[in-house]
Amino acid sequence: MKKYTPPYTITSKMVNLISLISEEISKIESSQEQIITPKLRKINRIKTPAGTLEIKGNFLGEEKITAILEGKRVLGTYAEVTEAESVIRVYKKFENYNPYSLESLLDAHKLMVGGMLTTAGSFRGVNVGVGSQEGVSHVAPPYNIVLELMHQLFDWLEACDERSREELDTRSMPYAVNQAIESELMAAEPEIDYGKEKQ
What we know:
This protein has 199 residues and is mostly helical. 60% of the residues lie in helices and 5% in strands. The chain has 9 helices and 2 strands. Helix 3 (38-55) packs across helix 4 and helix 7 (146-166) runs antiparallel to helix 8. The protein is globular.
């Protein structure tokens, strides 16, 4: 398998922004004892899934997320409620995932959309593209090379993290790596989105 490096360049602006983010994290860490309280943990258990759902276009809201966490029934479409329950399950299992494991990625995907997508937990087996009223805006790589692309990406991620531990400032590298990984996953479209399957 050939070695892969995502096409990105670290610019001086990125380094400056990473530095500012690192400073803010340091401030938070230095006062972490006072900040992390049971109340804040509960708020984050609600806000984190709510934010994830909003990114996906699900605006169920914090009040209903709280009710779901408390085991109560909520009013919403089947897709909204199922998606919210799934996101909550993934976040509960989050610390058990291995960031370098395709199996962890696929397990999270299965938990996240298993109630809405028949192929949840596996890479796509069809070719896909992203379209709009203007036409096709992105054609993902053919389905038969997705597994190889994902192996290459995850190998790069692990090697990158090893380099950052050995050579680089370990506090700044994750931000740039995260953006590269997110961009590559979006371009490869390794899974079929349940919204596309339901159409």
